[in-house]
Design brief:
eight-stranded mixed sheet; 46% helix; rod-shaped; receptor; cell membrane; nucleotide-binding; Signal recognition particle receptor FtsY
Length: 401
């Protein structure tokens, strides 16, 4: 009996424990799932490279800002490359003008003494008959002396030779030198007027036909004036030729002269007016105005040259109007000279390329034609090859030593 009771008690206890387990499992709430682990971040693929850089970049040690060398001033900005500094052209010191033609005498005589030697050879003949005198006339005419001056010179030579009687080489050279100097003129004032007594600046206008070397002459004249201690302003009134203003400005920069210029194909008279105005404001000694190389056959352009002159004279009268002639053109240059003289009052002549012609008689002919003196001569391509005309040095170069 006791065994039966013990078995019943054990069964009851087992049932009670099983029931408690079932009830407890129903009351228990489910736990939230654990948080997911942090995802692995995959680096993006490296950019493709070419050649030696085609491999995947590797980690490299990095420096802190304290370890980085900074430029002076501590600036971390991007360095900006400065534009190159344009150096101003070096100002040249022209050689003095005193005796410049004498120094260039060798160059002049090398090309000019055909006239002098030809005359000396003819005058040295034992008998000076009519044929010889005709040859002397032809020699002078070929050298562009002109008809009237040639006749005057031959008459004087005839008389002097008849009086002298004997004609040694030294006597003939002295005789010819005297007569040529008389023909050219030694008493004429050949000074380029740039210093008016009552005002500053002096105003010089340079005129001439294309190809005579007008712009170059203007630049060389600036050098002559600077060499003599003057200050200069250049007016680039040749607005019809694109390179003229640039060329003149280059000449000016070499000697420190300011250049006034206008727009291409602009009004030349306006540029000339502004040049004189700026010259007055700057207090310079001389204003040089380069005009267009106007063809003397075109009336409209010649009228415009007259307009330039009138506009400039609103400031002050012109002190010089220099006509540039090419010595190699001979009698054709005289035609040009006549037309220019009708438009503006020519006060002086510049003969260029005198070293390239045996026709030195153009000096006599052009003076006779215009009634104004040759004041300057160009004897080469060098910057200082423009010289004041000196009759004695010129004649000595013609007839030789």
């Amino acid at each position: 009996m006791e065994t039966i009771i013990l078995a019943v008690v054990i069964a009851v206890v087992v049932l009670a424990v099983l029931g408690g387990l079932v009830v407890g499992s129903r009351r228990r709430k489910p736990l939230p799932p654990p948080p997911p682990a942090a995802p692995d971040i995959t680096a993006p693929p490296a950019e493709p490279h070419v050649g030696d850089e085609a491999e995947t970049p590797r980690d490299e040690p990095r420096r802190t800002i304290e370890e980085v060398d900074l430029p002076d001033g501590g600036s971390t900005g991007v360095a900006v490359e400065e534009p190159p500094v344009v150096e101003a052209p070096q100002i040249e010191i022209p050689e003095p003008t005193a005796g410049r033609l004498v120094r260039l005498r060798t160059r002049l005589s090398r090309s000019q003494n055909a006239l002098g030697k030809g005359l000396l050879t003819l005058l040295s003949r034992e008998h000076l008959d009519e044929d010889t005198w005709e040859e002397i006339e032809d020699t002078l005419l070929t050298a562009d002396v002109g008809v009237a001056p040639t006749q005057e010179l031959v008459e004087r030579l005839r008389e002097r030779v008849r009086v002298l009687g004997t004609r040694t080489p030294d006597e003939l050279r002295a005789l010819l030198r005297e007569e040529l100097l008389e023909l050219i003129g030694t008493e004429v004032d050949r000074t380029v007027k740039t210093e008016p007594a009552d005002r500053k600046p002096g105003i010089v206008m340079v005129v001439g036909v294309n190809g005579t070397g007008k712009t170059t002459t203007t630049g060389k004249l600036a050098r002559v004036l600077v060499a003599d201690g003057r200050t200069v302003v250049l007016g680039a009134a040749d607005t019809f030729r694109a390179a003229a203003a640039d060329q003149l400005q280059t000449w000016g920069e070499r000697v420190g002269a300011h250049t006034v210029r206008g727009p291409e194909a602009g009004d030349p008279a306006s540029v000339a007016f502004d040049a004189v105005k700026e010259g007055k404001e700057m207090g310079v000694d001389v204003v040089l105005i380069d005009t267009a190389g106007r063809l003397h056959t075109k009336t409209g352009l010649m009228d415009e040259l007259g307009k330039v002159k009138r506009v400039v004279e609103k400031h002050a009268p012109l002190d010089e109007v220099l006509l540039v002639l090419d010595a190699t053109t001979g009698q054709n240059g005289l035609v040009q000279a006549r037309v220019f003289a009708e438009v503006v009052d020519i006060t002086g002549i510049v003969l260029t390329k005198l070293d390239g012609t045996a026709k030195g008689g153009i000096v006599v002919a052009v003076q006779r034609e215009l009634g104004v003196p040759v004041k300057l001569v160009g004897l080469g391509e060098g910057a200082d090859d423009l010289a004041p005309f000196e009759p004695e040095a010129f004649v000595d170069a013609l007839i030789g030593e």
